[in-house]
Amino acid sequence: MNILELHHLKKYFATQKAVDDISLEIEQGSIFGLLGPNGAGKTTLLRMITGIFYPDEGEVILDGKKFDPLTDIIKIGYMPEERGLYKKMKIGDQALYLAQLKGLSKSDAVQKIKYWFEKLEMQSWWNKKVEDLSKGMSQKLQFVTTVLHEPKLIILDEPFSGLDPLNANLIKDEIYGLAQKGSTIIFSTHRMEQVEEICDHIVLVNLGRKILDGSVQEIKHRFKEHKFNVQLSNVPSIILESPAFHVAEEKANKYIVRINDGYKSNDVLKYFIEKDLNVDGFNEILPSLNDIFINLVEDTKATTRSFQNIEAN
Ligand SMILES: Nc1ncnc2c1ncn2[C@@H]1O[C@H](COP(=O)(O)OP(=O)(O)OP(=O)(O)O)[C@@H](O)[C@H]1O
Fold this sequence. Notes:
Alpha-Beta Plaits; 4-stranded antiparallel sheet; transport; 2 domains; 10 helices; ATP-binding; Rossmann fold; alpha/beta; 29% strand; ATP binding; binds adenosine-5'-triphosphate; 14 strands
């Protein structure tokens, strides 16, 4: 079942097409990556999902019904990239206030805050002021205030920014835990290695449009270049030559080979066996999301430039 569906969403600021006809579906319980370069339209899209902006066109379907910001906002937890905390307020009071705004009773809120503060090693912070927190500490507090009311949809914009590796792991484990309990996470970041590690499904937007949509594994396979690592037990005394592949890189007994059109990985292995060369390792090299991201974004830039040239002429 889809927790969220966006149907043909558009948001223009004067002539700036911040979001230009984006549709997508997000399955309940998934960890979904919303990616795109600076200015791609991610924040604008998230602001429409959270009811901060009304779309110019299109609709947001949350949990099977047309999204109504007034009543449905408690189903969503949104952690924006910029801090939204009151600097002078004590941390415990702040968490309590925000939890009650999200519909929790005072006693329920206290219980949940204690639970999360303990989990994220924040017990001693209750009487500190927000202005006395470091960047990473306020990021943790903001995370807690986002998830405290157990929203069905949790939107995290750059949740690891400012966190040291230990705290990043702590938050990462909580994200997995929340997804396992049935919450859906939308995760927006520029850090591709985090996306590869955490997300099941991604959407890439650029210039207000969706340019890629799929599961991380499926996308990596879609863009694969049929390259394999081959490790031999010894440096061979022959030059590796075969119609099935060509050597793209070599270093001593380690090779990167690219399979030629019309051949399969087994044809490569067969070559090595027939030459009586011992293969210690053989594995496919899939492109990183980072490479896929850079290539696609460069491609859309080039296409837009050529359209602009055609229009100008
Ligand atoms: N309130 C606004 N008024 C005018 N233009 C805006 C407004 N908000 C966003 N834009 C423009 O819309 C486009 C998309 O901006 P948006 O903030 O959604 O991008 P983003 O993908 O979140 O970028 P980043 O990764 O840098 O945060 C940009 O060209 C931006 O200048």
